[in-house]
Amino acid sequence: MRILRRLLWVAVFVVLLVIGWNFRIANDITVRFDYLIGHSEAQPLWKVVLGTFLAGAVCASLPLLWLLARSGLLARRYRKTVARLETEVHELRTLPLGVEGPGRAIAAGSEAPPAGGASRAARGG
Fold first, then answer.
1. N- to C-terminal Cα distance for the chain?
2. Which of 2, 3, 6, 114 has the maximal Cβ count within 10 Å?
3. Are 54 and 72 in contact (CB under 8 A)?
4. In the prediction, which pLDDT does 66 show?
5. How many CB atoms lie within 10 A of CB 23?
6. Residue pLDDT, tens place only, 6-51
7. How many separate helices (H) and strands (E) can be counted in the chain?
């Protein structure tokens, strides 16, 4: 399977080389390239076409790179938040419980109800 995949990539590479060479031969005339702030000297047409294609690809990929960087930073922030919350849950699970009275467990540090309590007569009832 590896050999087949490698042969496929070599075949694709050779096909692209042949197409590129034919493109170069077909577009070998020289042209002047005029752009917004000036012009270039006479260049082969295939170089001008290839340069404009690459410039367009770079301009088109810049917004994509911005979105990828932004989503990567957002994912990093979410991972940190999840890690912090998981640590907090682990700490809450291992929190010792204080025992007050027979069979009554209350959280450590919380306020316990009064021991004696008020009788019904003292409360007015």
1. 88
2. 6
3. no
4. 93
5. 14
6. 999 999 999 999 998 998 888 888 888 887 888 888 888 888 888 8
7. 3, 6
Q: Give the separation between CA 69 and CA 113, rounded to whole angstroms.
A: 55
Query: CB-side exposure of 75: number of CA atoms within 13 Å?
Result: 6
Confidence (pLDDT) at 33: 80
Nearest to 107 by CA among 94, 98, 115: 98
- Which helix H or strand E contains 97, and what residues bound it? strand 97-99
Residues in the chain: 125
Q: Which two tokens stand for residue 94?
A: 């291992």
Put simply, whether the predicted model's pTM sits higher than 0.85 gets the answer no
Please report, to the nearest 10 degrees, the dihedral formed by the alpha carbons of residues 35, 36, 39, 42 taken in order.
0
Tell me the CA distances in angstroms from 124 to 8, 41, 113, 115, one per residue in order. 93, 106, 20, 19
